[in-house]
Amino acid sequence: MEENGQGTRGHPYPPGRGQGGRQYSCTLGCLPTALVGAGVVTYLLEGPGWLLVVWLLPVALMMSGRSCLPLVALLVVMALQTWGTWWLLVPLTLFSVIARTHYLGYRIVSSKMRLSHEDARRRITSLYGAGRPRRASTLRRAITLLRGGLEAAPPGDPERLWYLNTFGKVVHVMVAQHLDPAAADGVTDLLREAVRHGREARATTPTTDPDRSDILGTLQLSLFLLFLADRHSAERSARVAELDTALLDEAVSIGWEAVAAAPPTDPERASHMTNLGGALLFSFLLHRDPQLLEKAIQVARDSVAATLPDDPDPSGYLTTLSTYLQIKFMMVGDLGVLEEAVVVGRSAVAAAAPSPLSRSANLNNLAAALYLLCTRRRDPQLLEETTRISRTALAQVPREHPNRTLILLNLSQVLRLTVERGGSPALLDEAFRFGRKAIDATWLDHPYRISSLLSFGQVLRDLSVRDGSPAKMSEAVMYCREALSIASSDDAFENMRNRCRFVLGDVLSSRFDMAGDPGDVLEARHLLATVAIAAESNDYRLPAAVKAAELDLLADDCEHAMVMVELAVELLPQLTSRRIGSADRRHLVAGFTGLAATAAVSAIAAGAPERAVELLEQTRGVVLSDAFDTRGDLTLLDEGAPDLVGAFDDLRQEIERADHASASPDFSAALMGTGVPAKSNHQQLTERRARLERQWVRLLGRIRERPGLEDFLLPPPVERLREQAVEGPVVYVVPHRRGGHALIVTDAPERPVRVVSLPAFTQDAASEQVALLRAALDDASDADLPAPERQAAQQRILEVLSLLWDTVAEPVLRHLGHTAPPPQGSPWPRIWWCPVGISAFLPLHAAGHHADGAPSSAVMDRVISSYTPTIRALGHARAPRSYASGQRPAMVDNPSMLVVAVPDAPGSPPLPGVVSEVDLLLRKFPTATVLPAPGTPATHDEITAALVNGHIAHFACHGLADPADPADSRLLLHDHLEHPLTIVDIARLRLPHGELAFLSACSTTDTDLRHADEATHLSAAFQLAGYRSVIGTLWPVNDHAAAGIADAFYTQLSHGGTAPAAASAFLALHHAVRTHRARHPTMPTQWAAYVHSGR
């Protein structure tokens, strides 16, 4: 059958065929004669000429061709003679047009008019086919003709099947071009009629009929559209529980049947697959079954593959696949899925038909995918491209088209994100205008009404904060309330309702911050807690629980805050499923930056400091801990379950390979038109990861069944955590809006955790200190500033260090009894700092009054400081090495040393001090290996290979901390532009001999706020790779100062000999920094940046 129903079935009726045709033929054949006769008689008897016109005009309209010309001329003459009553012709002419339309409806079966079924099909097809936009009146005329044809072709007539099937197709065109299932009640009646005809067509079509797939496809789409119309009707009447999901189930079943019946060469096969995918997608949205979404995606892939080369507009299949992939990304957070959606979306734009409507739809889909990508990547150029594409889509869509609302909504969201990322504040006004237009284009039960209201409410909230306008904030609350009132009360659409609750709760929280009304907090807490506890999906549960706990603390309801915190911690592992890669897990966890501090403060307020430590361990370094789990010591397992050691080691290595693997970009869009069912490399990787996760869970279950291994790889309780405080306490520093706290973990069994209140160290105070510090660092390193200004910046840094001593460090040390330097000859006490949230950017180890002549009033004058991301990370640094083969390397008295020196990385300023730094190292350690060799470049592959067998690694080069994507932070080698040595590359290494890494590079312990609790920086990556101790920096360090500190460090480390004692790296750094401070006390940029991490 040809596209759009233009083919034929059976044989045309011969003229006059059929009893009904003869009856209508007689009636209509006599009508002109009767009208003429009646008109003439009336004219002769009554006189008014216009009356004759009334009767003769319908006759003229019924006639065709030249035969009507004499009668038309007569009508004109008579009309002129009766001009005084001309205005009566207007309504009478309309009546005549109606008469003609009614008359033509019967010409279809009139043998005397000589119109066969073949002519009827041709006329009907001309009214709706050819893929062009049609007027609603034209399509209604086609529906009228089809109804007449069905009356003329009773059941059993071979022509009836064509009318039954074509009726559904015309209704589909009507719905697509003019009717919205959510807007027009009349469409439901049309669709019910189409479903009735479609079911009859299916029942009367033999399974061997070559057109059966087309008939099934028409019925499937009618069922699906009727389900959508019923769904919106149910939402309008708040009777969603009465929604007949059997229609959707039948649409899915018939869809599979249509696809199975369509041969590979059928031009409609891809369309059947797309319609089936739509039904599967809605089944997923109703039932929240991930397998339904996977089936929809696979069907969409298959539709792309089934697209024939001569398809005039294959973009629709690509756009559908891109949309489904975007939905999957929003469900699981897998960046690879989103990247594929973008690639497929670009392919759709390239393949789109030249019509503005097609291009607009495809551009809007691509913009939606790019918007989601912008939420993952802080790329200004990507955001600009997204805005440009959204504007183009809006310019090309017709003003009255249903898609215009969605485009307006998306553009408003893109502009709002641009402002959040530092764009012009004026763009928020533009986002407001587009948001207002989106609302104006929707009505009460419009499918985008709720989303438009919520988005507009958020824009108003942002405008209120920007302008300090309580009125706008109240208006934002009003729109969010309206969205919630419209949302369905049935569980089938609970996710949308909970989205409304979450946004309203968030906006009410913002209004409380502005106006301080306790009622806003009370309502927001209720809304957010409802979402956190009752929601079925995880879309809003975790963020709602975190936000609710924060508000509970504001309301001094510590008990309920703990309930919300415990729920959030319970939900957190769902974000770190190994079904997605480590980079995706880091990003998802980073979205809940404040969770750790909120959890700790809630537990402290509830009088449970031990639980506060356990919660901090479970909410920080989450991905890091997962990595440690796959690299831990096998001694315990070897003792308790020796028969499972091999399986465990093999599986954890395979998991690591899959975790760091990336799919090649041969996405399924490349298979368009091949006829080969597509499965992207990324989908295969996802399936591999899911399989490995299932195996991992089963294996852990078997291990935990063994005596003594019941808590194997479970979060350790505080009784075990305190074991890592034997050599010195671990101090968590937690800033919070309620006031800061220090949690001191000691090895005391009776009281392992102590709490020190830090009332002045609030979240705002810590943020202010970080801002002052970074501004001063920028000025101090700006060579274009005059020397006095640079020195003034150094003084501002010292002031930050003094304030940090007064508000944080001194109270902690005083509590520990470190009120003065240790006695001469006594060992230095140690302390491990574990800063939470924004405090990770502050040099706690350097806090003190350094320039006032009181050297004892500084941390480095009382204790030796080290850092650790978590207590579990410290345990990993101290744990015995794990070797899969069971063969452990022999201990060496003279550890090997690798020096990587890159003073001239491409695109970076030269580092002349590197040369002297390397010379100093070689004088101390003549056997050290220096890379690169003279005349050769230092490359990624060469360096990573050399690290495997070394004990000590010293990097003298540039380091780059990437604030947009901290996982992309790198050390700059000679090939860093093509093959950078990033955090990801370092973390995937397994370095069983690693003892010490000295990163004499810039900002190797720096990250951004969202990733601070995950320790996404170069120093942590080297720890994960296997180094027990890592020396890094918090900010860029002067080239020559770096060489001097390195010289002092290795002098102390080797005790004047040639064998460095890596285990005492913490002590060597402590003395080197104090020595440099003594020489340059007013230059903190040179000595306060160095930090020791690890054992």
Automatic annotation (TrEMBL):
InterPro entries: CHAT_dom (IPR024983), TPR-like_helical_dom_sf (IPR011990). Keywords: Membrane, Transmembrane, Transmembrane helix. Residues 799-1095 form the CHAT domain. It comes from the Bacteria. The keyword Transmembrane helix applies. The chain crosses the membrane at residues 22-45, 52-80. This is CHAT domain-containing protein.
